[in-house]
Each structure stands twice: as structure tokens, then as C-alpha cells.
Design goal:
Elements lengths: L4 E2 L10 H7 L15 H21 L6 E4 L2 H13 L6 E5 L4 H7 L3 E5 L9 H7 L4 E5 L13 H13 L9 E5 L11 H4 L3 E5 L10 E5 L25 H16 L1 H22 L4 E2 L10 E5 L5 H10 L2 E2 L15 H5 L4 H4 L2 E5 L6 H15 L1
Helix pairs in contact: 1-8, 2-8, 3-4, 9-13
């Protein structure tokens, strides 16, 4: 069987060989617990500290502001629950297109969901109306995992900062968190330029190991831990550090930041090519999400009248691997909550397909995809 054409990079990325090589010593020669007192363990502790500093450097943060987690979901939960558990009568504000790892923990508290427009971008007047004196946390994703729409995060941050400045000294704090899991490969992550207080990064989306991640927590933010024990990670994430995963995360982050500009331009050209050819091939095709403020690897479409599950099986048999939506909710038969929030009809939502490109994607791959869609849909 020929090597399949993989077009689901938003769900998972393959491990970069350079990342694996960097991780390898920590499975064998440098396996020691970094909290142990002997020299070999202290050497590993130094490597862990150096990794934390490297992540901080890429984010424009301080090393003490980086908390390592087992992936993006844990980091998102720590951000939401770590703030909200301190203020049981307060509210959290999220958008209607957040990832499930934001929606689910937020729903355990008093939560306000803010509308988005038909491109999936946050409605700023609605966001402003949703933030009141009871709000302690706003969580707006940097870029959407399904349709690729990039949120106006700096505008959101300016709004939150203005709301914070209007509060009296003895009022509740007001923090801004962003889920940057899908944005990391392509967008600026400098926390000061973005104006965020907390930010989630996920190694499994940037050609690093799955179940590796980090949460930036500004020094002004106080969190309660979700996992109690030995007090690692500033007491916010107890448990012996998975040094190999951390090393893999930081190596992947360095690589993706260094190649960000060139890879973004390459994928933007492929994206424009695909959308133009697709519109010629199937004139009824609907491109979901923003055309201008969009991740360069995202090719989310609806083909009215098509059963997306059947089409995905046909593509799979033809050696093309894609998705209908978020892999985290793939077992859910309901239409995507993201598309519903954008006002997409249930029919068009059930006709939607998410193709997401990556480092190995070529124009020839897209031509093969277009040929297959022409055969199966036509």
C-alpha cells in the first residue's frame, strides 16, 4: 500500500526526528528524578531548568512563569479551574467556539458564552457586555482548531485591560487566558505583545510528543493546583517531572518558531491554490471560517448535500486521511458546536470536511485530493 496522504495535522503531528533525538537520553542515561539530591539527578534538574528558560524565551516570559503539563487539555483545565475554584461566586467568559477542554471546565462554574460572527470571530461588543464586576476570567482561543479563524486577540486584551482598569482596588481580579495550541506553529507567541495573563501551548500539535504541554502563568496570576503531591512546578502540578517530554516540547517549540515565517508563507500559497481549484471543481463549495484571518494550514469546507462520513471513508480507502471536525469530539454524532455557533446549518455542518496541512504537504498531495473529490462528489 502506498504511503497515505495525511491531511489531519490539526489533530496530531508526527514527531520530528530532531525532537526524538533530543528526548532519547532521558529515557536511558539521564533517567534520574530531578528532585533527587545526587549529582546525576542534579544534572537532569539543570537540563529541566534550561528547558524552562528556553520556553520562556520563545514566549517572552520569565522561567518561573512556565508550568509544564501533560498536554493542552491539562493546561486549559489548570487555567480555568485554577482561577475559578478560588472565586465560587464569580463568572468566567468564553467564546462559543472554544475547544472542549475550555468549554467543559468553564461549564462547572457560572459561565457566559459570547457569540461569534459567521466567520467564527469573537463579537467584541458582546464580549464587552458579558464582562461585569463578577467576571474574573476571560478565555478566548488564539486560533480555532476546526475552521482556523484567528481571533483578534490583541483587541480582546485591550478590552480586558480597560475593564480591569475601571475596577476599584478591592474588586475581583480580571485575567485573560488564551488557548494557543493551534496557533503555535504560525503566529506570534510573545505574551506581552499579545497582552495575555495565561497561555496554553501543546507539544502534540507542533511535531513534539503527545501529552506534553505548558501553561504560561503571569506573575500577577494566582492559581490553585489541580494535582496535589510533592509540590513540583511551583506547587501547581505535583508529580515527578517527565523530563523527556519536556525536552521534546522545548525542542519542537524552538524548531517551529525558527521555521515559522517560511512555513507560513509556503502553506498560504498552497491554501490559496486549493481554495481556487476547489471553487472551480465544485462551485457550490462553502469555505468555512475567515478567508483573511485564518491559519495557513486550514482548508475547512462544506459540500452541500454530501454525507461527510461516507466521503471520509471513501477518501480513507483512497489513501487520504482527513476529518469532519475536532478529533476530540469525533465520536459525537451532533453537528459541530463551532459551526453551529457560526450560524452554519446542521445540514451544511454534516457536509463539512476539515483538511489541515503540515510540513510534509505538497501541491501534488492537494492535486490528488482534488482529483478524489471530483470523482467521489461529482
Amino acid at each position: 500500500m502506498n504511503t497515505p496522504i495525511y491531511l489531519d495535522y490539526a489533530a496530531a503531528t508526527p514527531l520530528d526526528e530532531r525532537v526524538l533525538a533530543a528526548m532519547q537520553p532521558y529515557f536511558s542515561d539521564s533517567f534520574y528524578n530531578p528532585s533527587a539530591s545526587y549529582l546525576a539527578a542534579k544534572s537532569v534538574a539543570k537540563d529541566l531548568a534550561a528547558a524552562r528558560a528556553r520556553v520562556a524565551g520563545q514566549l517572552g516570559a520569565k522561567p518561573a512563569e512556565i508550568i509544564f503539563t501533560a498536554g493542552g487539555t491539562e493546561a486549559n483545565n489548570l487555567a480555568i479551574q485554577g482561577v475559578m475554584q478560588q472565586f465560587p461566586d464569580a463568572t468566567v467568559v468564553v467564546s462559543g467556539v472554544e475547544h472542549e477542554s475550555i468549554i467543559a471546565p468553564a461549564a462547572q462554574h457560572s459561565c457566559r458564552v459570547v457569540a461569534v460572527d459567521n466567520a467564527g470571530a469573537i463579537d467584541l461588543p458582546s464580549l464587552e457586555a458579558a464582562i461585569d464586576e463578577t467576571t474574573v476570567l476571560v478565555s478566548i482561543m488564539y486560533a480555532n482548531n476546526e475552521v482556523g479563524t484567528i481571533q483578534p486577540l490583541k483587541d480582546v486584551a485591550a478590552l480586558v485591560a480597560r475593564k480591569r482598569a475601571e475596577r476599584s482596588v478591592d474588586s475581583l481580579p480580571l485575567y485573560l487566558h488564551t488557548d494557543a495550541c493551534q496557533a503555535t506553529n504560525y503566529l506570534d507567541l510573545h505574551v506581552s505583545r499579545l497582552g495575555v495573563d495565561l497561555m496554553t501551548v501543546n507539544g502534540g500539535k507542533i511535531y513534539g510528543p503527545k501529552q506534553s504541554g505548558a501553561l504560561y502563568v503571569g506573575t500577577q496570576v494566582q492559581l490553585w493546583p489541580l494535582i496535589l503531591g510533592g509540590g513540583q512546578e511551583r506547587g501547581l502540578r505535583s508529580g515527578t517531572e517527565n523530563v523527556a517530554q519536556v525536552i521534546g516540547l522545548v525542542e519542537a517549540l524552538d524548531i517551529t518558531c525558527n521555521m515559522r515565517r517560511d512555513e507560513t508563507q509556503r502553506l498560504q500559497e498552497l491554501q490559496a491554490y486549493y481554495f481556487a481549484k476547489m471553487s472551480e471543481l465544485i462551485p457550490s463549495v462553502i469555505i468555512n471560517g475567515s478567508r483573511k484571518k485564518r491559519l495557513p494550514n486550514n482548508l475547512h469546507i462544506s459540500i452541500p448535500g454530501v454525507d461527510n462520513e461516507r466521503l471520509l471513508m471513501q477518501l480513507d480507502e483512497a489513501g487520504i486521511l482527513a476529518a469532519a471536525g475536532s478529533a476530540c469530539s469525533a465520536s459525537d454524532n451532533d453537528p459541530s458546536h463551532v459551526l453551529r455557533a457560526m450560524g452554519v446549518s446542521d445540514g451544511d455542518a454534516r457536509s463539512s470536511l476539515r483538511f489541515t496541512m503540515g510540513r510534509a504537504t505538497t501541491q501534488a498531495d492537494l492535486d490528488t485530493l482534488l482529483d478524489a473529490l471530483g470523482r467521489f462528489v461529482g
